[in-house]
Design goal:
Layout lengths: L1 E5 L3 H12 L3 E5 L3 H7 L11 H10 L3 E4 L2 H7 L2 E4 L14 H14 L6 E5 L7 H13 L7 E5 L9 H6 L4 E4 L3 H8 L9 E4 L1 H31 L4 H9 L22 H14 L5 H22 L5 E5 L14 H11 L3 E5 L10 H10 L3 H4 E2 L2 H6 L3 E4 L10 H4 L3 E4 L12 E3 L3
Parallel strand pairs: 1-2, 1-4, 2-3, 4-5, 5-6, 7-8, 9-10, 9-12, 10-11, 12-13, 13-14
Helix pairs in contact: 1-3, 4-5, 5-6, 9-10, 11-12, 12-13
Length: 434
Protein backbone atom coordinates (compact mmCIF):
# COMPACT_ATOMS: atom_id res chain seq x y z
CA UNK A 1 0.00 0.00 0.00
CA UNK A 2 1.16 3.58 -0.64
CA UNK A 3 0.63 5.68 2.46
CA UNK A 4 1.04 9.39 3.14
CA UNK A 5 1.86 10.56 6.66
CA UNK A 6 1.13 14.15 7.68
CA UNK A 7 3.49 15.35 10.40
CA UNK A 8 7.08 14.12 10.75
CA UNK A 9 7.47 14.63 14.47
CA UNK A 10 7.68 11.82 17.01
CA UNK A 11 4.67 9.73 16.02
CA UNK A 12 4.97 10.53 12.32
CA UNK A 13 8.65 9.61 12.04
CA UNK A 14 8.20 6.32 13.91
CA UNK A 15 5.12 5.46 11.83
CA UNK A 16 6.96 6.34 8.63
CA UNK A 17 9.80 3.96 9.36
CA UNK A 18 7.79 1.11 10.87
CA UNK A 19 5.12 1.06 8.17
CA UNK A 20 7.82 1.01 5.52
CA UNK A 21 9.59 -1.85 7.25
CA UNK A 22 6.25 -3.67 7.25
CA UNK A 23 6.22 -3.58 3.45
CA UNK A 24 4.50 -0.30 2.55
CA UNK A 25 5.74 2.63 0.51
CA UNK A 26 5.41 5.76 2.60
CA UNK A 27 5.42 9.48 1.78
CA UNK A 28 6.07 11.86 4.65
CA UNK A 29 4.47 15.32 4.55
CA UNK A 30 5.51 18.27 6.67
CA UNK A 31 5.51 22.08 6.52
CA UNK A 32 9.09 22.02 7.80
CA UNK A 33 11.55 21.79 4.92
CA UNK A 34 14.22 20.81 7.44
CA UNK A 35 12.33 17.65 8.44
CA UNK A 36 11.57 16.87 4.81
CA UNK A 37 15.25 17.23 3.90
CA UNK A 38 16.31 14.96 6.75
CA UNK A 39 14.01 12.15 5.59
CA UNK A 40 15.15 12.62 2.00
CA UNK A 41 18.73 12.08 3.20
CA UNK A 42 17.74 8.90 5.01
CA UNK A 43 17.92 10.56 8.42
CA UNK A 44 15.38 10.45 11.25
CA UNK A 45 13.77 13.67 12.45
CA UNK A 46 13.93 12.55 16.09
CA UNK A 47 16.33 10.85 18.49
CA UNK A 48 14.80 7.50 19.35
CA UNK A 49 16.22 4.00 19.74
CA UNK A 50 16.37 2.08 16.42
CA UNK A 51 14.38 4.54 14.32
CA UNK A 52 17.52 6.03 12.72
CA UNK A 53 18.56 2.59 11.50
CA UNK A 54 15.07 1.83 10.17
CA UNK A 55 14.77 5.15 8.33
CA UNK A 56 18.21 4.72 6.75
CA UNK A 57 17.53 1.15 5.61
CA UNK A 58 14.08 1.91 4.19
CA UNK A 59 15.33 5.05 2.45
CA UNK A 60 18.11 3.08 0.81
CA UNK A 61 15.49 0.62 -0.45
CA UNK A 62 13.61 3.53 -2.03
CA UNK A 63 10.50 2.91 0.07
CA UNK A 64 10.27 6.25 1.85
CA UNK A 65 10.42 9.87 0.80
CA UNK A 66 9.17 13.21 2.11
CA UNK A 67 7.64 16.32 0.64
CA UNK A 68 5.99 19.62 1.51
CA UNK A 69 3.53 19.05 -1.36
CA UNK A 70 0.40 17.68 0.30
CA UNK A 71 -1.48 17.61 -3.00
CA UNK A 72 1.07 15.25 -4.53
CA UNK A 73 1.21 13.07 -1.39
CA UNK A 74 -2.56 12.54 -1.20
CA UNK A 75 -2.94 11.82 -4.90
CA UNK A 76 -0.05 9.34 -4.86
CA UNK A 77 -1.44 7.43 -1.85
CA UNK A 78 -4.63 5.55 -0.96
CA UNK A 79 -4.44 6.19 2.76
CA UNK A 80 -3.35 9.30 4.70
CA UNK A 81 -2.34 9.23 8.36
CA UNK A 82 -2.56 12.45 10.37
CA UNK A 83 0.22 12.67 12.97
CA UNK A 84 0.45 16.43 13.45
CA UNK A 85 0.83 17.99 16.88
CA UNK A 86 -2.06 18.85 19.20
CA UNK A 87 -0.39 21.09 21.81
CA UNK A 88 -2.15 22.03 25.03
CA UNK A 89 -3.18 25.60 25.81
CA UNK A 90 -2.52 27.19 29.25
CA UNK A 91 -6.16 26.42 30.13
CA UNK A 92 -5.77 22.73 29.29
CA UNK A 93 -7.66 22.85 25.98
CA UNK A 94 -6.09 21.28 22.90
CA UNK A 95 -5.00 23.36 19.95
CA UNK A 96 -6.49 21.41 17.05
CA UNK A 97 -5.65 24.01 14.39
CA UNK A 98 -2.96 21.78 12.84
CA UNK A 99 -5.45 18.92 12.59
CA UNK A 100 -8.04 21.10 10.88
CA UNK A 101 -5.48 22.64 8.53
CA UNK A 102 -4.38 19.16 7.51
CA UNK A 103 -8.03 18.21 6.91
CA UNK A 104 -8.36 21.24 4.60
CA UNK A 105 -5.24 20.20 2.69
CA UNK A 106 -6.48 16.64 2.27
CA UNK A 107 -9.86 17.99 1.16
CA UNK A 108 -8.23 20.19 -1.48
CA UNK A 109 -6.24 17.26 -2.83
CA UNK A 110 -9.31 15.03 -2.94
CA UNK A 111 -11.18 17.42 -5.23
CA UNK A 112 -9.46 15.94 -8.26
CA UNK A 113 -9.11 12.37 -6.99
CA UNK A 114 -11.63 9.79 -8.18
CA UNK A 115 -10.67 6.82 -5.98
CA UNK A 116 -11.86 6.22 -2.42
CA UNK A 117 -9.43 7.66 0.14
CA UNK A 118 -8.99 6.70 3.79
CA UNK A 119 -7.94 9.31 6.36
CA UNK A 120 -6.56 8.04 9.67
CA UNK A 121 -6.28 10.27 12.75
CA UNK A 122 -3.30 9.05 14.75
CA UNK A 123 -2.82 12.30 16.70
CA UNK A 124 -4.26 12.62 20.20
CA UNK A 125 -7.53 14.50 19.77
CA UNK A 126 -10.71 15.29 21.66
CA UNK A 127 -13.96 13.36 21.10
CA UNK A 128 -15.79 14.95 18.18
CA UNK A 129 -12.62 15.74 16.20
CA UNK A 130 -13.14 12.84 13.79
CA UNK A 131 -16.59 14.17 12.93
CA UNK A 132 -15.24 17.71 12.47
CA UNK A 133 -12.40 16.50 10.24
CA UNK A 134 -14.94 14.69 8.09
CA UNK A 135 -17.06 17.84 7.80
CA UNK A 136 -14.05 19.92 6.75
CA UNK A 137 -13.01 17.38 4.10
CA UNK A 138 -16.58 17.22 2.78
CA UNK A 139 -16.84 21.00 2.62
CA UNK A 140 -13.49 21.52 0.88
CA UNK A 141 -13.49 18.50 -1.43
CA UNK A 142 -17.15 18.42 -2.35
CA UNK A 143 -17.14 14.67 -1.69
CA UNK A 144 -19.44 12.75 0.63
CA UNK A 145 -18.12 10.91 3.68
CA UNK A 146 -18.55 7.19 3.27
CA UNK A 147 -18.59 7.44 -0.53
CA UNK A 148 -15.53 9.44 -1.58
CA UNK A 149 -13.57 9.10 1.64
CA UNK A 150 -13.72 7.94 5.24
CA UNK A 151 -12.11 9.01 8.52
CA UNK A 152 -10.85 6.43 11.01
CA UNK A 153 -9.59 7.15 14.53
CA UNK A 154 -6.50 5.10 15.43
CA UNK A 155 -4.86 6.47 18.60
CA UNK A 156 -1.18 5.74 19.21
CA UNK A 157 0.26 4.44 22.47
CA UNK A 158 3.96 5.07 21.89
CA UNK A 159 6.34 5.98 24.72
CA UNK A 160 9.42 8.05 24.13
CA UNK A 161 12.49 5.88 24.46
CA UNK A 162 10.66 2.67 23.51
CA UNK A 163 8.51 3.93 20.61
CA UNK A 164 9.69 1.41 18.01
CA UNK A 165 9.29 -1.47 20.46
CA UNK A 166 5.84 -0.17 21.41
CA UNK A 167 4.84 0.13 17.75
CA UNK A 168 5.57 -3.53 17.09
CA UNK A 169 4.30 -4.79 20.45
CA UNK A 170 1.11 -2.89 21.34
CA UNK A 171 -1.21 -4.24 24.01
CA UNK A 172 -4.10 -3.43 21.69
CA UNK A 173 -4.72 -1.61 18.43
CA UNK A 174 -7.83 0.59 18.61
CA UNK A 175 -9.84 1.56 15.54
CA UNK A 176 -12.95 3.73 15.50
CA UNK A 177 -14.81 4.32 12.25
CA UNK A 178 -18.12 4.24 10.42
CA UNK A 179 -17.09 2.58 7.16
CA UNK A 180 -16.30 -1.13 6.89
CA UNK A 181 -14.05 -0.78 3.86
CA UNK A 182 -11.95 1.86 5.59
CA UNK A 183 -11.76 -0.13 8.84
CA UNK A 184 -10.58 -3.22 6.98
CA UNK A 185 -7.92 -1.25 5.12
CA UNK A 186 -6.54 0.29 8.31
CA UNK A 187 -6.70 -3.10 10.09
CA UNK A 188 -4.48 -4.55 7.36
CA UNK A 189 -1.68 -2.21 8.44
CA UNK A 190 -1.45 -4.10 11.73
CA UNK A 191 -2.13 -7.67 10.61
CA UNK A 192 1.43 -8.79 11.34
CA UNK A 193 1.49 -7.42 14.90
CA UNK A 194 0.93 -9.87 17.72
CA UNK A 195 -1.87 -7.97 19.41
CA UNK A 196 -5.67 -7.77 19.27
CA UNK A 197 -7.41 -5.20 17.09
CA UNK A 198 -10.40 -3.65 18.83
CA UNK A 199 -12.97 -1.96 16.60
CA UNK A 200 -15.15 0.45 18.55
CA UNK A 201 -17.20 3.64 18.33
CA UNK A 202 -15.33 6.69 17.06
CA UNK A 203 -15.66 8.72 20.27
CA UNK A 204 -14.49 5.79 22.38
CA UNK A 205 -11.37 5.55 20.23
CA UNK A 206 -10.82 9.30 20.56
CA UNK A 207 -11.11 9.27 24.35
CA UNK A 208 -9.10 6.16 25.27
CA UNK A 209 -5.65 7.79 25.00
CA UNK A 210 -6.65 10.44 27.55
CA UNK A 211 -7.99 7.79 29.92
CA UNK A 212 -4.83 5.69 29.56
CA UNK A 213 -2.43 8.54 30.23
CA UNK A 214 -4.49 9.99 33.07
CA UNK A 215 -4.39 6.59 34.76
CA UNK A 216 -0.63 6.38 34.25
CA UNK A 217 -0.32 9.79 35.92
CA UNK A 218 -2.58 8.53 38.73
CA UNK A 219 -0.38 5.44 39.24
CA UNK A 220 2.79 7.49 39.45
CA UNK A 221 1.22 9.91 41.93
CA UNK A 222 -0.23 7.09 44.03
CA UNK A 223 3.14 5.32 44.23
CA UNK A 224 4.87 8.59 45.13
CA UNK A 225 2.45 9.36 47.95
CA UNK A 226 2.81 5.83 49.31
CA UNK A 227 6.57 6.34 49.04
CA UNK A 228 6.42 9.58 51.01
CA UNK A 229 4.42 7.95 53.80
CA UNK A 230 6.76 4.95 53.83
CA UNK A 231 9.82 7.15 54.07
CA UNK A 232 8.31 9.03 57.00
CA UNK A 233 7.83 5.69 58.76
CA UNK A 234 11.28 4.40 57.73
CA UNK A 235 9.71 1.63 55.63
CA UNK A 236 11.16 0.54 52.26
CA UNK A 237 8.57 1.88 49.81
CA UNK A 238 9.86 -0.26 46.94
CA UNK A 239 9.35 -3.43 48.96
CA UNK A 240 5.80 -2.29 49.74
CA UNK A 241 4.95 -1.54 46.10
CA UNK A 242 6.69 -4.68 44.83
CA UNK A 243 4.44 -6.66 47.14
CA UNK A 244 1.44 -4.59 46.02
CA UNK A 245 2.16 -5.50 42.38
CA UNK A 246 2.23 -9.25 43.07
CA UNK A 247 -1.56 -9.20 43.45
CA UNK A 248 -2.81 -9.56 39.88
CA UNK A 249 -6.23 -10.73 41.07
CA UNK A 250 -7.32 -7.36 42.48
CA UNK A 251 -4.51 -4.75 42.48
CA UNK A 252 -3.13 -5.04 38.94
CA UNK A 253 -6.21 -6.34 37.20
CA UNK A 254 -9.62 -5.49 35.76
CA UNK A 255 -11.12 -5.52 39.25
CA UNK A 256 -12.97 -2.33 40.27
CA UNK A 257 -12.65 -0.72 36.83
CA UNK A 258 -16.38 -0.56 36.13
CA UNK A 259 -17.97 2.91 36.37
CA UNK A 260 -20.85 2.90 38.82
CA UNK A 261 -21.89 3.90 42.32
CA UNK A 262 -19.66 4.85 45.25
CA UNK A 263 -17.56 2.38 47.20
CA UNK A 264 -18.46 1.44 50.77
CA UNK A 265 -18.33 -1.38 53.29
CA UNK A 266 -16.34 -1.89 56.44
CA UNK A 267 -12.89 -2.09 54.82
CA UNK A 268 -12.24 0.44 52.06
CA UNK A 269 -13.43 3.59 53.90
CA UNK A 270 -11.73 2.55 57.14
CA UNK A 271 -8.39 1.57 55.63
CA UNK A 272 -8.19 4.59 53.33
CA UNK A 273 -8.91 6.83 56.30
CA UNK A 274 -6.23 4.99 58.26
CA UNK A 275 -3.55 5.53 55.61
CA UNK A 276 -4.44 9.20 55.19
CA UNK A 277 -4.36 9.70 58.97
CA UNK A 278 -1.01 7.93 59.15
CA UNK A 279 0.41 10.43 56.70
CA UNK A 280 -1.19 13.36 58.48
CA UNK A 281 0.14 12.27 61.88
CA UNK A 282 3.64 12.18 60.41
CA UNK A 283 3.23 15.62 58.76
CA UNK A 284 3.20 14.09 55.28
CA UNK A 285 0.90 15.70 52.71
CA UNK A 286 -0.92 13.21 50.44
CA UNK A 287 -3.24 15.26 48.19
CA UNK A 288 -4.27 12.34 45.98
CA UNK A 289 -5.13 10.00 48.84
CA UNK A 290 -6.91 12.85 50.63
CA UNK A 291 -9.08 13.50 47.57
CA UNK A 292 -10.39 9.94 47.18
CA UNK A 293 -13.05 10.20 49.88
CA UNK A 294 -14.38 13.54 48.60
CA UNK A 295 -14.60 12.11 45.08
CA UNK A 296 -16.55 9.16 46.47
CA UNK A 297 -18.94 11.52 48.24
CA UNK A 298 -19.42 13.37 44.98
CA UNK A 299 -20.55 10.14 43.31
CA UNK A 300 -23.28 9.86 45.94
CA UNK A 301 -24.36 13.42 45.09
CA UNK A 302 -24.44 12.55 41.39
CA UNK A 303 -26.81 9.66 42.15
CA UNK A 304 -29.09 11.82 44.29
CA UNK A 305 -29.24 14.57 41.66
CA UNK A 306 -30.14 12.02 38.98
CA UNK A 307 -33.11 10.92 41.11
CA UNK A 308 -34.09 14.50 41.99
CA UNK A 309 -34.26 15.47 38.31
CA UNK A 310 -37.06 12.94 37.74
CA UNK A 311 -39.38 15.06 39.87
CA UNK A 312 -40.88 11.86 41.30
CA UNK A 313 -41.10 11.10 45.03
CA UNK A 314 -42.02 7.40 45.24
CA UNK A 315 -38.90 5.23 45.01
CA UNK A 316 -38.47 1.46 44.92
CA UNK A 317 -34.92 1.02 46.23
CA UNK A 318 -33.44 -2.34 45.08
CA UNK A 319 -30.36 -3.36 47.07
CA UNK A 320 -29.34 -1.72 50.34
CA UNK A 321 -26.20 -3.57 51.41
CA UNK A 322 -22.91 -2.23 50.08
CA UNK A 323 -22.53 -5.33 47.89
CA UNK A 324 -24.96 -7.97 46.62
CA UNK A 325 -24.75 -11.35 48.34
CA UNK A 326 -24.21 -9.83 51.77
CA UNK A 327 -26.27 -8.16 54.48
CA UNK A 328 -23.42 -5.82 55.50
CA UNK A 329 -24.88 -2.32 55.76
CA UNK A 330 -21.88 -0.66 57.40
CA UNK A 331 -20.79 2.40 55.44
CA UNK A 332 -22.97 1.32 52.54
CA UNK A 333 -23.32 4.22 50.10
CA UNK A 334 -26.88 3.02 49.53
CA UNK A 335 -27.71 3.65 53.17
CA UNK A 336 -26.34 7.18 52.84
CA UNK A 337 -28.42 7.73 49.70
CA UNK A 338 -31.57 6.30 51.30
CA UNK A 339 -31.02 8.47 54.38
CA UNK A 340 -30.71 11.58 52.23
CA UNK A 341 -33.78 10.73 50.16
CA UNK A 342 -35.88 10.25 53.28
CA UNK A 343 -34.62 13.56 54.65
CA UNK A 344 -35.69 15.23 51.43
CA UNK A 345 -39.23 13.89 51.68
CA UNK A 346 -39.08 10.89 49.35
CA UNK A 347 -41.21 7.80 49.99
CA UNK A 348 -39.04 4.67 49.94
CA UNK A 349 -39.75 0.98 49.62
CA UNK A 350 -36.52 -0.98 50.08
CA UNK A 351 -36.01 -4.49 48.72
CA UNK A 352 -32.90 -6.52 49.53
CA UNK A 353 -33.19 -10.30 49.59
CA UNK A 354 -30.25 -10.63 51.98
CA UNK A 355 -31.21 -8.01 54.56
CA UNK A 356 -33.53 -9.22 57.33
CA UNK A 357 -34.13 -6.97 60.32
CA UNK A 358 -34.29 -9.89 62.76
CA UNK A 359 -30.86 -11.14 61.69
CA UNK A 360 -28.95 -7.86 61.97
CA UNK A 361 -26.53 -7.98 64.89
CA UNK A 362 -23.56 -6.18 66.38
CA UNK A 363 -21.93 -3.29 64.53
CA UNK A 364 -24.15 -3.92 61.53
CA UNK A 365 -27.31 -3.42 63.60
CA UNK A 366 -25.86 -0.42 65.43
CA UNK A 367 -24.97 1.27 62.15
CA UNK A 368 -28.42 0.86 60.62
CA UNK A 369 -30.14 1.92 63.85
CA UNK A 370 -28.19 5.16 63.73
CA UNK A 371 -28.73 5.92 60.04
CA UNK A 372 -32.07 4.27 59.17
CA UNK A 373 -33.82 3.66 62.50
CA UNK A 374 -37.16 3.04 60.76
CA UNK A 375 -35.79 0.47 58.30
CA UNK A 376 -38.37 -2.07 59.48
CA UNK A 377 -41.11 0.22 58.13
CA UNK A 378 -39.32 0.67 54.80
CA UNK A 379 -38.04 -2.78 53.93
CA UNK A 380 -40.22 -5.27 52.05
CA UNK A 381 -39.95 -8.74 50.57
CA UNK A 382 -42.64 -8.03 47.96
CA UNK A 383 -40.67 -6.62 45.05
CA UNK A 384 -43.59 -6.71 42.62
CA UNK A 385 -45.87 -4.56 44.78
CA UNK A 386 -42.98 -2.20 45.56
CA UNK A 387 -42.36 -1.60 41.86
CA UNK A 388 -46.05 -1.17 41.13
CA UNK A 389 -46.49 1.39 43.91
CA UNK A 390 -43.42 3.46 42.90
CA UNK A 391 -42.61 5.97 40.17
CA UNK A 392 -38.86 5.32 40.12
CA UNK A 393 -37.03 2.01 40.46
CA UNK A 394 -33.49 2.51 41.73
CA UNK A 395 -31.21 -0.49 41.08
CA UNK A 396 -28.17 -0.91 43.31
CA UNK A 397 -27.41 -4.65 42.97
CA UNK A 398 -26.27 -6.36 39.77
CA UNK A 399 -28.21 -9.54 40.50
CA UNK A 400 -31.54 -7.77 39.90
CA UNK A 401 -33.07 -9.18 36.71
CA UNK A 402 -34.85 -6.37 34.87
CA UNK A 403 -36.29 -8.77 32.29
CA UNK A 404 -38.12 -10.73 34.99
CA UNK A 405 -40.15 -7.64 35.88
CA UNK A 406 -40.49 -6.10 32.41
CA UNK A 407 -44.28 -5.81 32.71
CA UNK A 408 -44.14 -4.04 36.08
CA UNK A 409 -41.31 -1.75 34.91
CA UNK A 410 -42.95 -0.75 31.64
CA UNK A 411 -44.21 2.63 32.90
CA UNK A 412 -41.54 3.24 35.57
CA UNK A 413 -38.40 5.34 35.47
CA UNK A 414 -35.42 3.01 35.90
CA UNK A 415 -32.21 4.40 37.39
CA UNK A 416 -29.31 1.94 37.37
CA UNK A 417 -26.35 2.56 39.72
CA UNK A 418 -24.44 -0.64 38.90
CA UNK A 419 -25.13 -1.46 35.22
CA UNK A 420 -27.21 -4.60 35.35
CA UNK A 421 -27.46 -6.94 32.37
CA UNK A 422 -30.15 -5.90 29.89
CA UNK A 423 -31.41 -7.88 26.90
CA UNK A 424 -32.92 -4.66 25.59
CA UNK A 425 -32.50 -1.18 27.03
CA UNK A 426 -35.94 0.16 28.11
CA UNK A 427 -36.80 3.62 26.81
CA UNK A 428 -37.21 4.86 30.39
CA UNK A 429 -33.79 3.55 31.51
CA UNK A 430 -30.94 5.78 32.77
CA UNK A 431 -27.48 4.69 33.88
CA UNK A 432 -25.62 6.56 36.60
CA UNK A 433 -22.50 7.32 34.53
CA UNK A 434 -23.05 5.59 31.18
Amino acid sequence: MIISIFGLGYVGCVSLGCLSRNGHNVIGVDVSSLKVDLINQGLATIVEKDIDIIIKEEFNKGKIRATTDYFDAVNESELSIICVGTPSSPTGHLNLSYIYKTAEQIGEALKSKSSFHVVVIRSTVLPGTNEKVGEIIEQVSGKVRGIGFSVVSNPEFLREGTAVKDYYNPSVTVLGGDNLEAIEKVSSLYKDLNSPIEITEIKVAELIKYVNNSFHALKITFANEVGNICKGLEIDSHKVMDLFCTDTHLNISKAYFKPGFAYGGSCLPKDLRGLVTLGHDNYINAPLLNSIDSSNENQKRVAYELIARTGCKKICFVGLSFKEGTDDLRYSPSVDLAEKLIGKGYELKIYDENVHISKLIGANKAFINEHLPHLSDLITDDIVSSIQESDVVLINHRNFNVNTYSAELADKIIIDLVRVHLDDVPKNYTGLCW
